[in-house]
Amino acid sequence: MNGVMELKYLQTLKTILETGSFLGAARKLNYTQSTVTFQMQQLEQKLSVKLFEKIGRKMVITQAGEDILPFVETILQSVEQLENYGKRTKELKGNLKVAMPETLLTNQMQPVLKAFREQAPGVKLSLQALNCYTIRDQVVNGGADIGVHYDVGGYGASMVIEQLADFPLSLIASPSLENKFCDFITEGQRSSVCLITNDRESIYQEMFDNYLKEKDIRLEGIMELGSIETIKQSVNSNLGVAFLPRFAVENELENGTLQELKTGLFDRNITAVCVYHKNKWITPAMELFIRLSKECLSHTS
Fold first, then answer.
1. Count of CB atoms situated within 10 Å of the CB of 110
2. Which CATH number, 1.10.1660.10, 3.30.70.2740, 3.40.190.10, 3.40.50.2300, labels domain 93-164+272-297?
């Protein structure tokens, strides 16, 4: 088995762990499942270790497999580093996995993505729109190279956290919402208004839930919808109120299709951060994406 083949097998091993199965790796790499199985058998023979064992119907990585993963990651990162050494930005190759919440992806990060594609067209950029707590865990576990999201804490000493920008939050409602339902200041209220959210576990939703609890304000129910755009349309249709980063509703507030309600959270912000593992080699693609994020978001807060 020559060196080139061994690198291919290591990449297959990494892909199995990223996708969670031999079948998932085969689909992502455009292999047959039997090819993936053969490669892992060859790799096991070369390394003299058992990498996977069958538990029920699933192939699960062994402890020996877990132990060698840091070495596999180091080898693959070193190869990418060599391939990109001395290249101009437009010649960069490789993969970059970035995770961010929908609000940032839709509203703030579009200029970053556009600039990155223009400056590094050869890099395969993989984007995931996830909850901020999930993003933190993905970066910690190696599921994402970079997390651009709202600071939720709990990163530990192994993470590098760079602040990007602070953003204010707004409680929004339809202009046709009755005045008696617009009061979110007076304590002890019981309201028939519904709360609309795109992520029940988001950091800003948690802030608003805590505020309602402190004020002893109870709303009638909660509606969880799939996108920010759907939320704005639903609020405009007077189906309920929503608490979101203000930049996500700036245009609607300016043109009067939505109104902002007063709360005791008028001075509260959320902080967007860029997070990556401190032991991970900062590829030129990562370095470019982080720099563009800093440049673009620093002008928006």
1. 12
2. 3.40.190.10
